[in-house]
Amino acid sequence: MLRMSRLRYRRTTLLVALALWGVAFACAGYLFALNRRVTRELVRHGWREPTVIVSAAGGGGREIARLYGVDWRVSAPVSLGDVPRYVANAFVAAEDVRFRHHPGIDPIGMFRALWTNVRAHGIAQGGSTIDQQIIKARFLTQERTLRRKVVEIPLALLLDARMTKDEILEVYLNDVYLGHSGGKPVLGIDEASRLYFGKPASRLRIDEAALLASIVRAPNRDTPDKRPDLARARRDAILSIMQKHRWITDDQYRQAVAREVEFPGGAVPQAPYPFYLRALRSEIVNEIGVRPVIEGGLRIVCEMDPVAQSAAERSARRGAAQLESRYFWIREQSRREPLQVAILSIDPRSGGIRALVGGTDFDVSPLDRTSNMRRQPGSAFKPFVYAAAIASKRATPASLLLDAPLTIDVAGDRTWQPHNYDERYRGRVTLREAFEGSLNVPTVRLTEDIGLDRVIKAAEKFGFEEEFANVPALPLGVTEVTLRELAAAYTAFPNLGVRVEPYLVTEVTDRGGRQLMKHDRDGARVIGADVAYVMHTLLRGVVQRGTATRLKRYGLSYAAGKTGTTSDYRDAWFVGYTADMVTAVWLGFDHGAPLRLSSGEAAIPVWGTYMSSIPHSAAQPQPPKGVTFRDIDPETGMLWSEGCPGPWREVFLSGTAPTHHCPTGILGRVVRRVFFDRENFDDPPAISLEQFRRWANEVDQGRQQVQGILGRLHRVFR
Length: 718
Hints:
Elements: H1 2-43, E1 51-55, E2 62-67, H2 85-95, H3 107-120, H4 130-139, H5 146-162, H6 165-175, E3 177-181, E4 184-187, H7 188-197, H8 206-214, H9 228-244, H10 250-258, H11 274-288, H12 291-295, E5 299-302, H13 306-326, H14 328-334, E6 340-346, E7 353-357, H15 382-392, E8 400-403, E9 408-409, E10 415-416, E11 427-430, H16 431-436, H17 440-450, H18 452-461, H19 483-490, E12 498-500, E13 505-509, E14 515-518, E15 523-525, H20 529-544, E16 560-565, E17 571-578, E18 581-588, H21 599-611, E19 627-632, E20 648-653, H22 665-675, H23 689-698, H24 703-717
Parallel strand pairs: 1-5
Antiparallel strand pairs: 1-2, 3-4, 5-13, 6-7, 6-18, 8-11, 9-10, 12-15, 13-14, 16-17, 17-18, 19-20
């Protein structure tokens, strides 16, 4: 028994020793990793070196911005030699009066804080030194726990041993949190000095430096505006400590305490192009991690065109303001939440993002709505439906579709009836007319004819990441997508079938010139060049005759694109392109309040204003192999003959052009009167619902039966 007890004791002792060794090893490894971060991010002074942003657009080499710190701020780090000595001493007096004499931790301050907390039965006072505050802010959480202190203390000792007191103080003065402005933290004495006093830190008076130091513990609460008496008391206490330690003279003390306690006000310097730079930083972090960004000193080549970016920001602001001034319901809604405008421009030849605006005002809402918002695209999704139909060779731009009331059975005993945006019906229309006029009912009929699965497969090829539901309303754009996905999918049209992946970053190198990242062009063929060219002519028709004709007012008749308005008028879209620029525009309210405007009223003016103000190419793609042109009768979709309306020059995939000629003469006029009367094309239809139903029964199978009837009529009357 004694032997068994000894054996158990030894085993228990061994297990405890192993456990303690494991804990010690884990703690040592954790501290070692943090010590390496301290070395990289602080000791080597990389935080002082700027990150330089350079544009690759237009030949490249143009510097866009020099930014500092992990948050990419405009203000350069302050050196102690750049500011009066009393500025640093004010913060030492306020936060760590024994800073220059302790080894990184202050035992006296720690015991005093411990005694205060015991008496208060909780955490009422901290005993952190400036070294510990740096470690906490840079590497740890803000929670007050014993575990954090166990890590914080040895790191503070290491920091103090590896950096001089002035170097540590410089880090602190450039990192200290001193409030919020425009939803963003104010960090460092230079930003705070510019915000509260309207001048750089180098020009601070003694009383102003002490006032800044006095608000460190509660910078959003203990300000002269909110608590003037407390602010004065703390400022004067700091000045008294500075006088006691002979950091200021008696005369300086008397003059400082005699001054008023106030923040005259100013502004924090802002980085240019905030939406683009934030997205740029996110892409870099996703690609190479956050460590190089924290260490600083990077050289980043990006795809931004500063001219286009400035124009996009200006167009977004003005577009929202003009709609608010013109429509009272938008103005009323904007008082509750701002009207948002998002713009994204991509060079379809490379995928480089030339301009990115995620909202109307970055300071009000910095959310990037080009990538971090999903909304229904409405009719802006239709090009992918029609591309699937053209590629199937079961439809052509001259195919006839029926625009008449339609009822579709859905789940259970429910039915769904699609409607056009204006609640009107046109009878028989060509596929081109249906697309250019953004008619919903013919689009649904076309989808039924070619099959919903074919549309889903086509959309997936275009790069959408969503799982498309197999529902009849899918071709009307009811699946939520991002603006970036939609714009990327449209790059296949000017590229004649090749979709490119959008990107912001071309290259990243560190301060030693070592390449950390380089973008490789990512393009893939998603449709044939012939199909893409036919779609290009349809998309051009939207601008020339369809829902985007307003672009002609901006001199953009050569552009191509598609409008998109959701059924509840919640979102307005226009995605359009030229040979060298695909631009997507979205307007709406974040919480879904209806705009009550079509995309022609809301999105087209923003797109037109923006694109007409930046350089771009008006060139058109050349017809590829696999397409043919024919003169057709625009009413019947048949080959044109003398005496028929037109001719209209139409493009077809090889082998899909019509083979029958349009009916002529008296009988031809009768046929047109009966089947193709378009007198009321833009007005409410004059024919009755019973007539529509009879027509629907006659051509229940869609385009093929309609063309079969017309073919028989042609043979009879020829």
